[in-house]
Amino acid sequence: MHKPKSLGTMPVGYRQAACDFGWACHDAREVKPFASLPGEVFGGTYAEAASWMAKQNPIARAFILIFTAGTGMEKFLHELPAAAASIPIVGGAAARSGDSKGSTVPFAEDVAVFAITEGYWQAITVNAHFGSEEFFVCEGGDPRRFSHIRSGNETLPALDFFQRARERHLLSANDWDRLALMTRDGVVLHLHPEDGEVVCGTDLPGSREVRLVVFDSGLGIEALRASINPQSLLFGCAGLHGLFENNRPWEQWATTTYLFGEIAKLNNQPRFSNLTFSVLQRIS
Predict the structure, then answer these.
(1) Got the DSSP string for 219-237?
(2) Cβ 121 vs Cβ 284: under 8 Å
(3) DSSP3 helix / strand / coil % (the chain, rounded to 5)
(4) Beta-carbon contacts of residue 209 (< 8 Å; ≥ 6 apart)
(5) How far apart are CA 174 and CA 193, in angstroms?
(6) How far, in Å, CA of 263 to CA of 132, rounded?
């Protein structure tokens, strides 16, 4: 019988251990309780965590993962042993960017893991960005950067392409949150400009093919309303926290935290996504 462990959120930059399992939350101003669940905890490198997770298969009912590193999680999730990847996985990153580190309890070089050992759970992904435009190619050699967009026979500087897109969707000239990219399998990519290029918050697919999606608060709230219950644990994006401003009713519906990139369940596999709600829903 596993004793309950406390899970908690900490302000960004908070270092002192405050619970058995905790992480830096975008919205936290003080240490706050998140949940109390029976389970096992681990912190370490990506390789160490993958090995540990596979060994928890006989007892683990779900995993909560908090990445301390800002990069490398795509490869980690893709290469997870089948014994670990078959278990519901949610969570996200406590790091703001690729060259930063986020705080977790226990301390972890790359990722802290909580294995829930009771109940039955399912991982659900909910988006607040929608669209049906044509796919295009982001040209460049870096998995998280590109300088040009190739659409059909036309190639444009990426910054010009997005400026036109914002004008078309009646968005302000500097709005990099309401406009995002989505891959063919549903990963959402948050964007920002840097040194004349566009930088993504998660890796582009190998094909570098994506399409535009646009934030819709009403559709996002309705999708959440249909997907969560009072026992759900909700890991939302810090960018969505800002986009919804003071209209976040799900915080009254389910326990909520905000991270800097989330784990999405797509094609029954865990993937790293942005501007997403990563939901762990208890079903019994």
Answers:
(1) HHHHHHHTT--TT-EEEEE
(2) no
(3) 20, 40, 40
(4) 135, 136, 137, 183, 184
(5) 10
(6) 23
User: 92 near 263, Cβ under 8 Å?
Assistant: yes
Q: What is the dihedral of CA 17, 21, 22, 23, to 10 degrees?
A: 110
Query: What amino acid occupies position 153?
Result: N
In Å, what is the CA distance from 176 to each residue of 86, 136, 181, 194, 201?
34, 18, 11, 12, 12
Tokens of 62: 């779900």
DSSP strand pairing (179-182 vs 121-127): unpaired
Q: How far is CA 204 from the centre of its chain?
A: 15
- DSSP assignment letter at 3: P
pLDDT tens digits, residue range 33-72?
999 999 999 999 999 999 999 999 899 999 999 999 889 9
Choose among 256, 257, 247, 259: nearest CA to 220: 247
d(C-alpha 219, C-alpha 15), whole Å: 37
Q: What pLDDT, in 10s, does the model give residues 169-224? A: 999 999 999 999 999 999 999 999 999 999 999 999 999 999 999 999 999 999 99
Going by the DSSP 8-state scheme, the letter that residue 120 receives in this structure is -
Is the Cβ–Cβ distance between 34 and 8 less than 8 Å?
A: yes
Residue 49 · residue 113 · CB < 8 Å? yes
pTM of this prediction? 0.94
| Closest among 23, 45, 78, 138 to 263, alpha carbons compared | 78
